[in-house]
# Entry
Amino acid sequence: MIACGKDEPPVTVYPTNFTLDHNDQTDEGQYLVTGALSVSDLSINIGTYGAHRDSLKTEVRKKLESTFGLSEINLLSDTTLELHYTFNGNPVITPLSYSKVDGVIIIPDPFFSGLVGYDKATNTFILCVVTPFALPGPNAINPTGPSYLNFNITQCIAGHVNRDYAISYIPQKNLQVSDTVPVLVTRYYFK
# Structure
């Protein structure tokens, strides 16, 4: 961005490229299911999640990067951007329309709008995904069944915190009281 004068807004020079700067997986939580839609906090350092969380973080990153490996975002004009990524191992460039509201870039595409956001304060695009998964408790009818010990990566929901993801996961997986729901949020920052 280039500022032309003291009172003039910055002018963006196109194309403007944003490449991967870093990722962050420190936003995590672990919850004990206490009812149909209720949980209580647990330490992230205990149980199966505590023992294996570093390897799980690596597995989540590898899965995300192999299925949707976003590598670059290019602003081509005031209304068009391109996402450069690999999808199931194939390189893809997807042009998308965008708009600006008070300097914040809004991507109206239903798939990418919740997946890729823009932080005006830091001039950074953020790819955000959440990974809740279920660990069986002592009341599990089938502790090795499909509800447990696997994960799905989904896009973040604006305004949600880890507890919200854990609670919404209970009916999705038909979890029982005393099951455990770890939640891991992974963010990739593009500057």
Summary: The first helix runs from residue 47 to 67. The radius of gyration is 20 Å. The chain has two helices and eleven strands.
